[in-house]
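Standup notes
- HV: blocked on the assembly model, inputs below
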Amino acid sequence: MSTILWIKNGRVIDPANDRDAVGDIFARNGVIVDSLSDQEKEKAQVIDASGLVVCPGLVDIHVHLREPGQTHKEDIASGTRAAAAGGFTTIVCMPNTSPPADNPGTIRRINDSITQNAVVKVYPTGCLTVQMKGEQLAPMGSLWREGIVAVTDDGLCVQNNELMRRAVEYARMFNLPVMDHCQDASMTRGSVMNEGYWSLRLGLKGWPAAAEDMIIARNVVLSRACEHHIHMQHVSSAYGVDIIRRAKKRGIRVTGEASPHHLFFTDERCRDYNTLFKMNPPLRSEEDREAIIEGVLDGSLEIIATDHAPHTADEKDCEFDLAPFGIIGMETALAACLEVLVHSGKCDLPFLLARMTHKPAEILNLPAGTLSAGVTADITIFDPDQEWEVDPSRFSGKSTNCPWNGMRLRGKVARTIVNGRTVWDGNQIIDT
Amino acid sequence: MNDLTANWKRKDLLSIEPLHREEIETIHQLARRFKELQASNPSSIPSLRGRTVLNLFIEPSTRTRIAFEIAAKRLGADVTLVEKAASSLVKGESLRDTAQVVEALQADVIVLRHSAAGSPQYLSQIVKGPVINAGDGAHEHPTQALLDTFTMREHLGDSLEGKKVTILGDILFSRVARSNIFALQKLGAQVTLSGPATLVPANFEKLGVTVELNLRKALADADAVMLLRIQHERQTSTHFPSLDEYKSMYGLNQARGAWLKPEAIIMHPGPVNRGVELDSSLADSGRSVILEQVANGIFTRMAVIYLCLSACGKTKDTSQ
C-alpha cells in the first residue's frame, strides 16, 4: 500500500529549481512526484498550506548533537527533534563529542544512534586531527568509509600550518570538504568576548577579530595551494568576509557560513554579563554585523548555519569568564533570519531559503535541499509572518541556552516533513 | 545620618558606572562625617552591632580586605572572612551555592573580591542582601575610586570640575582605572590616560577620555597623577618588553616629576613597585598622598557599608 501526500495551495518556494508560485506538492511513498492520478488524489493525505510557504526541508551543516559523551546537554534524539521543530530536515553534526569522532568506531556508534533515534536526517563529520589536538592527522580515510561528509576540528582550530596543509591535501583524496573554526589560539588565550569598546568597558578579555582573519587568510592560501575546498565556519568579522570575497573572485574554492546570532546581535549584548551571549566566535561590533549581512547578500557567505551548541542551565549559570561558549539555535534560526534579512527588506524569501536549503547541501554534497521530482519528500511549511514569543522551556531540544529568550519573532514553522512523514506539526513532535 | 541615607536607594554597590554624581557625593559626605566623628567623638559613630559583614575574597587581596574589615569593625559589625583557599570553592562549589550558603548563615552584607569581571552583578541577582564590589577582574573597583576621588577633593578642592587627572600605567587590565575614569567624569574632571600603547588601547577614547602616550604631555597640566601597579609577571608579559624598559619609558622619577605642576599630587592604589612605576623619592615625598588614600579607604568603605544596609532598612541610627 502506498502513502500519498498532497500539499495544497501553498506558496511553493524551491530555490534550486527557481520556483516561487502558489501551487501543490505531491509525494508518493516518501518521494516527491510531479503529479498524482485522480485515484491517488482521493486517498492522499491532504495538507492545506493556504497562506503558508512550502519549501525544501531546511539544511543546517553546523550542529552539535553532543552524542556520545555529553548527552546531558543534548543527544541525537533530542537534537533532531529540535531540528524538526525548527524546520530542519537535514543536519550535519560536529565531531567534538566525548570521545571525539576521530575514529571509525565512534562514527559507527553515531550512525547507529542516528538510525535508531533521529527524526530528521543526520550526517556526521569526522575530526581533522586525533583527539582534536592539532598534532596528528585523524584517519580520515577510515572515517570516510563510515560515511562522514566533511572533516573539521570545530571548536578548536589546527594551529600548525604544516599539519593543516597536509590535512587539506589528505582530505582531498576523499573529496571531503574541510570545515574550519577560524581562530588563532595565540591571540585569544583567556578571551571571552569580542575585543572592542565593550570588552574594554566591561573588563572582559577580548577576542580580536584579527585572530579570526588570520586563519581565514591562512585557509585561503592553503585552499589555493592544495586546490581543495575549505569552508569557513561561523564567520563573524567584517574583514574576514572581505578576505573570502576577494578569494572567491580569484576562483579559490573557499566558502563561508553566517550564523543567525552573528546576523542578529552585537557584543553590546554582553553588557550585563549574560552568559547566553557568550559564544565562540563572539558577537562582534555593529560594523561586523553589517558586514556579515552584506556578505550573505552578495554571496560571499553563501549559507546560513546555526552552530547549535547546547549547554545545560547549570553550566551557563556562573561568572561570565567561567561559562562555556555556545548557544542553541535551530528552533529560532528561521525566524531570526527572516527578521534580519527578509522582514527588514534586505532580501526576498527565495534568496534566504536558498541559503538554508540547497546551498548548504551543495557545500557538503548532500542529497537534500530541493523539491525536485524523485528526491525524498523532505519539506518544511511555515508562516513567515506569524509572531511568537521565544520560550526555550517549550523547545524540543534538551537545553535552553537561547539568547532570543523572551523576544518576539516573526516566522513560525507549521510543519516539518521527512520522507513524506510529518515529524513536527507546528506544536509538537510526531513520533512514529 | 538620615539626611544622607535618604539620598541613597541602592542595595548594592556593584560599579561606579551607573551612579549619579549626587550618589558619589552622598558617599563622600558620609565618609567625611565618619572621618570627623572618628577624630572628635568615635563613640557617636552609628552602630551596626549585630550585623555581619562577610568578606568573600575569591581572589587574594590584603589592603582592600583589611580596609573593609576595619571599616566594618568601626561600625560595630561582625566580620567574617571567606577566602577561596579555605572555602568549598576549591572543592568545585559554584559561586551561586557559596553565596546561598553565606546568606543562609545570615551575613547581612557580602563584600566580593573576584577575578571574574561581572561577578558582583551576578551575585547580586542571587542574594537578597547587599553586595559590595571589592574588585572584579579588570572591570571595576568602585570603593577604590570613591576613596581616590575623596582624597582628591581633600587636596584639589571640593569641586573637581575642570581638574585634570592623569592615570598612568597598565590601564588595560586595571579595574582601578575604569572605576576612576567613571567617577572622575561624573565629578566633572578631565581624565588623561598614558602608558605603553599595548596597555592603553585607543578604544578607551570612546569612554570620553584623552589617550596621550607621550608622558611629558600627559603630565604637563595634571592636577593629580595616578600611577597603577605594573603586573608584568601576571598579565602583561606580551604587552611590553620588561620592567626595565617600562621604567625607562614611563617610570615616574625625580626628573619626570619636574614635568608636573609643583602642586600636583601623586597617587597610587598600591601596592607600589618601588623603582618601577614610581621612585621612592617621590613615593615618600610631600607630593605623595598614597597613605592618605589608604586611610580614607576606611571612611569611604564605612559609608558604603552603611548606605547599602540602610537602603535595606538594616541600620538603626543612634546618632540622633
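- HV (later): unblocked. Chain A touches chain B through 16 residues (CB under 8 Å). The longest strand of chain A covers residues 4-14.
- Next: hand off to the docking folks.
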